[in-house]
Write a structure and sequence with these properties.
Strand content: 15-25%
Structural class: alpha/beta
Number of strands: 31
Number of helices: 17
Radius of gyration: 26 Å
Helix content: 25-40%
Oligomer: single chain
Length: 643
C-alpha cells in the first residue's frame, strides 16, 4: 500500500492578522486571545484544575493540535496546580507546521514563550505516525499523532479522562466531527470522562448524545455565544479491544539483565516512581551484546512503509529525542550515510525516498557525486543520508540511564538469576543455590536468549554472533582525518572514538563462540573496503583489536515487548492477542538483535506504558506486531488448521 505523505500547514493570516488555514478556509483560533480561549473553553470547560488534584495520572485527548496553544495553556495550568501527578496530552494533527513556521506563529504569545521554546526544541520532523515527547522531568508527556484522525485515532490505545474537541468548523472539516470519529473517541474514554468544545452544531450534539454523552450548553468565548461541555454517563459504544489495565496498586518490579534493554526499562520505571531490583550476572552493566564501543543510530526504510519500517522510524526518532536529553551521554548525531549495494539498490533507495516524501531533515537520497563530496572519498554509489543519525556508546547509554534512575533502582551485579517462581504475592527469583533473591509483583526479562533458561517453554529466540574490528590509531591515520560520519552498507564504520575506529560486523546465526577470529577480521576489512574503496589495504589483521558479542533475534526480526502468554492455559476457541491468557506480572523486553541502540528506548517506554495504563506511544497494530504472545497465537492457529 502506498503510504500517505504528510502535507504541512503553511502559515497565513486572515485580514485581522489571526492565523488562518488556506486548506480549510478557517482561522486557527478566536481573534480575542487564543490562550484565553483555551482556558475558557477547554480548561475550565473540563473543570480543571480541580479534577487534577489527587488524580495521580490524567490523560487528555485533543482533535486538532494546530498551533499547540491548547497544549501550552494546559501545561501552564498543570504546572500552576502543583498536582504532583503525571499529565498525558494526546493530540492528532493532519497538517502540522514545520518547526520554523510554528516558532513564528507562537512568538506573539509572550505569556507562553518559555513553554513554547521547550516544545519547539523537541518538535519532531514531520513524519507520519506517533511522536512521544517528555517535559518537566517526565511529569508531562505529549503524544503527537501526525496524519488523518480517521486513520490514527482507531490506532490509539488509551484510557482518556477528558477530550478537547477542537479543529476547524464542522462545515469546513466535517471528517473531524463525523459520527464515526466521535464513536471512536468515545471508545477511548473512561466512564465519567468529560469533554469540551466551542462547537454547538446540531449534528455534532446529536452524534455525541447517541454514543452516551450528556451535554450542557455554557456561555461561549468572546463573540461565540455558546459552547458545549459533556460527561460520558451511559456509553453505548462497543467495549474497546486492547484496553489498558488500571494503574498498578504496587509499583515494584524485578529486572533481569543490565544491557540496553534492562537499563532502559529501569529508567522508564523509575520515571513513574517504581522501585526496581536489577540483577546482572556480570560485574557491571553492558558486558555482553551492549558492550561494543559504538552502536549505530539509523532507521529502516521501506517503499511501502510497512510495519517494520514504521516501528523503526518511531524508535529512531524517540531514541534521538531521549539521547539529546541525557547530557553526560557519549554519542554523536554526526549523520549516517547508508550506501547502496549496487545500481539496482541505488534505484530502489532513490524511489523509496520519492515515494515516502519524508522531510529532508529526516532522510534524503544523495547521488554518487554528492555522497563522495560529503565523505571526501570516492563512493561506488549514492545512498540514503540521515542527517540526524549517528553513533552512541552502548556502555555510556546503560551507565547514564542507571544514573538517572539511581534513586529508584537497586542494582545487584555479579548475581545470576537461576530460576523464577510465581507465588500468591507475585514472583520470586532464585540464585543457583535456590536462595530467594527478591520478590515483586512484576518481573521483566531483559537478558536476551538467556531468558529461555528461566521459562517453562522457550521463546523463539536465536543467538547471533557478531564480531567487530577496532583499528588502532597507527593503522587508521589515513581514514581518521576525513571520517566525520557513520558509513554503512553490508557493514559499518564509525568515526574515531579516542583514536579507535570501529568496523563491523559479522552476523552468524546459532553461533555462540565468543573467541575472536582472524577470518571475521578479514570479513570486516572487506566490509570496510566496500564502504571506502582502497582503505583496507595494508592493514595487519593480527594487530586488530575487536570484540565478540551475542545478539538475540526473533524469526520475524521484530522484538518481543509485553506480557508473556500463558502457554499452559486454555486459550479457548478462535483466540486473539486480546483474549490469550497471560502470565500475570511476567514481561519481556527481548529480541533486540543488532538494533538495540535504536529500539531499546521506545521499547522500554512501550512496556512501562502498558504496565502503567498510560496511552501507548505507538499505534495499536505496531504494539500487536511486537507482542511476545504472537508466536503462541500463530502456533495455536496452525494447530487448529491442521485438525
Amino acid at each position: 500500500m502506498k503510504p500517505i505523505p504528510l502535507v504541512p500547514a503553511e502559515p497565513a493570516a486572515a485580514g485581522d492578522g489571526t492565523p488562518y488555514s488556506s486548506i480549510y478556509d478557517d482561522v486557527y483560533h478566536a481573534t480575542h486571545g487564543a490562550a484565553e480561549q483555551a482556558r475558557h473553553v477547554f480548561i475550565r470547560g473540563n473543570d480543571f484544575p480541580e479534577r487534577w488534584i489527587g488524580s495521580g495520572s490524567f490523560s487528555i485527548l485533543e482533535t486538532g493540535f494546530g498551533l499547540g496553544l491548547n497544549f501550552l495553556a494546559t501545561w501552564q495550568a498543570w504546572r500552576a496546580s502543583k498536582s504532583g501527578g503525571r499529565l498525558h496530552f494526546v493530540s492528532v494533527e493532519q497538517h502540522p507546521f514545520r518547526r520554523n513556521d510554528l516558532a513564528g506563529l507562537l512568538a506573539p504569545h509572550s505569556e507562553l514563550n518559555s513553554l513554547a521554546a521547550e516544545l519547539l526544541a523537541q518538535w519532531p520532523p514531520l513524519t507520519p505516525g506517533f511522536h512521544r515527547l517528555h517535559f518537566d522531568d517526565g511529569s508531562v508527556t505529549l503524544t503527537l499523532l501526525f496524519g488523518e484522525a480517521q486513520t490514527l485515532l482507531p490506532q490509539l490505545v488509551a484510557n482518556i479522562d477528558a477530550v478537547y474537541l477542537d479543529g476547524f468548523s464542522p462545515a469546513r472539516n466535517p471528517e473531524l466531527w463525523s459520527a464515526a470519529l466521535l464513536r471512536t473517541i468515545t471508545r477511548l474514554c473512561k466512564p465519567r470522562a468529560t469533554l469540551a468544545t466551542w462547537s454547538v452544531a446540531g449534528e455534532v450534539r446529536r452524534a455525541m448524545e447517541q454514543v452516551g454523552w450528556r451535554l450542557e450548553r455554557r456561555p461561549g468565548f468572546a463573540a461565540k455565544r455558546e459552547m458545549l461541555i459533556g460527561c460520558l454517563e451511559n456509553a453505548v459504544s462497543p467495549t474497546p479491544t486492547f484496553r489498558l489495565p488500571r494503574p498498578p496498586l504496587e509499583r515494584r518490579a524485578i529486572v533481569i539483565g543490565a544491557g540496553l534493554a534492562g537499563t532502559a526499562v529501569c529508567e522508564r520505571l523509575a520515571s513513574r516512581g517504581w522501585q526496581v531490583e536489577l540483577f546482572e550476572r556480570h560485574a557491571a552493566p553492558a558486558q555482553e551484546a551492549s558492550g561494543n564501543p559504538a552502536g549505530i543510530l539509523l532507521p529502516h526504510l521501506a517503499k511501502d512503509d510497512a510495519l517494520a519500517a514504521r516501528f523503526s522510524r518511531a524508535c529512531y526518532l524517540y531514541a534521538l529525542h531521549r539521547f539529546a536529553g541525557l547530557p553526560t551521554l557519549r554519542w554523536s548525531p554526526c549523520g549516517v550515510l547508508q550506501i547502496a549495494r549496487d545500481p539496482a539498490h541505488e534505484a530502489l533507495q532513490r524511489e523509496t525516498v520519492r515515494q515516502l516524501e519524508l522531510p529532508e531533515e529526516f532522510v534524503c537520497f544523495l547521488e554518487q557525486e554528492a555522497a563522495s563530496s560529503l565523505v571526501g572519498h570516492s563512493m561506488a554509489h549514492g545512498g540514503w543520508w540521515f542527517p540526524g543519525g549517528g553513533w552512541a556508546s552502548p556502555g555510556s547509554v546503560c551507565t547514564t540511564l542507571l544514573m538517572a534512575a539511581r534513586r529508584f533502582v537497586h542494582a545487584q551485579f555479579n548475581t545470576e538469576v537461576a530460576a523464577l517462581r510465581e507465588t500468591t504475592d507475585g514472583w520470586q527469583v532464585f540464585d543457583a543455590q535456590q536462595r530467594v533473591l527478591a520478590t515483586a509483583p512484576h518481573v521483566i526479562l531483559a537478558n536476551a536468549d538467556s531468558a529461555n533458561r528461566l521459562l517453562p517453554r522457550s521463546l523463539p529466540l536465536t543467538p547471533i554472533r557478531g564480531q567487530i574490528s577496532c583499528l588502532p590509531k597507527d593503522q587508521a591515520a589515513h581514514i581518521e582525518a576525513s571520517l566525520h560520519h557513520v558509513l554503512c552498507r553490508a557493514g559499518y564504520v564509525t568515526p574515531a572514538q579516542a583514536g579507535v575506529i570501529s568496523v563491523g560486523a559479522s552476523f552468524d546465526r546459532d553461533d555462540t563462540d565468543l573467541c575472536m577470529r582472524l577470518a571475521d577480521h578479514d570479513g570486516n576489512m572487506q566490509r570496510l573496503d566496500e564502504l571506502l574503496p582502497g582503505t583496507a589495504q595494508g592493514i595487519d589483521l593480527a594487530r586488530l583489536g575487536g570484540r565478540v558479542g551475542l545478539r538475540s533475534a526473533a524469526p520475524d526480526r521484530l522484538p518481543l515487548i509485553g506480557t508473556l502468554a500463558d502457554t499452559a492455559a486454555d486459550a479457548g476457541r478462535e483466540p486473539t492477542l486480546n483474549t490469550l491468557p497471560r502470565m500475570a506480572g511476567l514481561h519481556a523486553l527481548l529480541g533486540l538483535s543488532a538494533r538495540g541502540m535504536v529500539w531499546a528506548p521506545l521499547a522500554a517506554e512501550l512496556l512501562v506504558s502498558q504496565l502503567e495504563g498510560d496511552p501507548l506511544p505507538i499505534e495499536r497494530d505496531l504494539a500487536r506486531a511486537v507482542d511476545p504472545a504472537r508466536f503462541h497465537l500463530r502456533a495455536l492457529r496452525r494447530g487448529a488448521e491442521a485438525l
